[in-house]
Amino acid sequence: MRYHIGDLxxxxxxxxxTGMLKPRMIEExxxxxxxxxxxxxxxxxIGQEAISVGVTQALKESEYILPMHRNLGVFTSRNIPLxxxxxxxxxxxxxxxxxxxxxxxxxxxxxxxxxxISHLGPQLGVADGIALADMLRRKKRVTAVFTGEGAxxxxxxxxxxxxxxxxxxxxxxxxxxxxxxxxxxxxxxYNCETLADRAKGYGMExxxxxxNNILEVYxxxxxxxxxxxxxxxxxxxxxKTFRMRGHEEASGTxxxxxxxxxxxxxxxxxxxxxxxxxxxxxxxxxxxxxLKASISEEINVNLELAFEESPVSFNETKELNEVxxxxxxxxxxxxxxxxxxxxxxxxxxxxxxxxxxxNELIIMGQDIADYGGVFKITEGFVPxxxxxxxxxxxxCESGIVSAAMGLSIxxxxxxxEMQFADFVSSGFNPIVNYLAKVHYRWNEKADVVVRMPCGxxxxxxxxxxxxxxxxxxxxxxxxxxxxxxxxDAKGLLNTAINDPNPVLFFEHKGLYRSVYGDVPTDxxxxxxxxxxxxxxxxxxxxxxxxxxVHWASEILDKNPEIEADLLDLRTLQPLDIEAVFASVKKTGxxxxxxxxxxxxxxxxxxxxxxxxxxxxxxxxxxKRVGSLETPVPFAxxxxxxxxxxxxFEQVLLELYAY
Length: 658
Ligand SMILES: Cc1ncc(C[n+]2csc(CCOP(=O)(O)OP(=O)(O)O)c2C)c(N)n1
Hints:
This protein is α/β, with parallel strands linked by helices. Helices cover 41% and strands 16% of the residues. It holds the Pfam family E1_dh.
């Protein structure tokens, strides 16, 4: 291995050596503990230390770094206290996730580290968002993100690179090409000569670096970082290296040819560098022994601390309370004049006033800038807020939701407009796995609102008509809002944007231009978790939300003999179940109407809860009405009968007569 010292100072040469020695020694200790059954799983980075250590030392402490499962050297180079790291691996309270997530799956704002989620790819988009926030604030910073060569096959990799290039974001994308993705060799993973070549397709610079040569890694990355800080832009770096142990310890390396192991064994980044430093007189055998003794002492002392700590204890209230970030809701009322406006205008107004209120609120979505979005919600926003805050995006929902997560991590707020709620399926993974779980896992907020133009009755067929709120009400960590009136839409959207938790905000397209209402012209907020009692009656409770509110009102108008309580839920998570209970206790009969197909929807859960809590008060079985169990059909005659409006009237009359 050839080393070029260049103008590196002796202290740096030593720091790089010690930097690599520490994760190697920790790993060697962990492998012993693993064999003794004292820790559970281990993903080894032995032989790859030069990459983690070289990159982290080239970054400034204020710059975010997003490591993977083999990047122990990132954590140690940022000087994370080892007792906390060990406690994390043992699932203990003083770890970074209080026993809620394992291994390297955590982040810490204190050390500007944002750990991976198991799904690998999403963090590449998160890096985009972090870098975007730095760029918008004109901070000359680099964000470095890691991926293995295996995960470069995920769509998230391509989306993140493309977005970074189109937006010219200062992201250093680091591919650690270690030959295998679990057992899959590179020739079964991709079919190009080097992965760095992919950069060309995205209009981006790239480099190939010998990942086992610490001086090459450090010098080239240092140079690149300085260049990116001067002139922000993304760069793709492929580090050539090798995975010297199994994917994780239990899985072994039988499928790896012995010859490759031998070849790469000779390229060990630490042994070679150590020999070089000894040769140059920068290191001596005594110095090495001293360093090893001191690291060994540090490891042992901190391991003892972690082992001494008792296992985490379960506290149900604490677990439940820490899924969401606490939100201090501020009621803002207004005495301003009211105007009779459409549903669509109310949303636009709320969004615009929130943009004035929060200087660091960024809106992202397809065609939302000059074009104003397909529903024209953001029409006229660009002259007021500029294209840096009203951002057109490429068609890549997953990448953009991840970028929104990154903006939030770096202290900004984001609203993402799904062009149609149906397309959220392409951004599903980061919503349910990243945004929803991040607070519970490592106490980080996901200050993101995803706007969801949804719903049927508009003759738009199976891919532009769904109301898919049940995909999200199922997932702890998300809030789900579903207004039915212009007044609610504006007030609840403002609250959604103030709330630091991830909010799915459903906007029924059928209501956009058909429903009018009186709406204060000034900014105001409405609380989550408070159902609206729209009419009161003693004989039956009707619970619904969204377009269902209008259908139910129309049918109750048509049947004035039915004296009904009509409850508009307004938010589904949090759900005002108490309001439902109170009404059912009064009326003794409940019918729940939802536009979504019936099975597994919110109506089923409300029905179950009412059965459990109000059984003695019920005079009839609880009734649920929803759409047919089919995709949403296109032709009018089919869609009319798919939707539940007609069936609702029939079931309502039957229940009334029961
Ligand atoms: C979406 C997803 N698919 C599959 C897996 C299982 N898995 C975890 S790591 C891994 C291999 C990753 O290979 P690579 O990206 O090259 O990283 P390396 O482990 O080699 O460092 C696989 C298949 C996963 N965690 N997430």
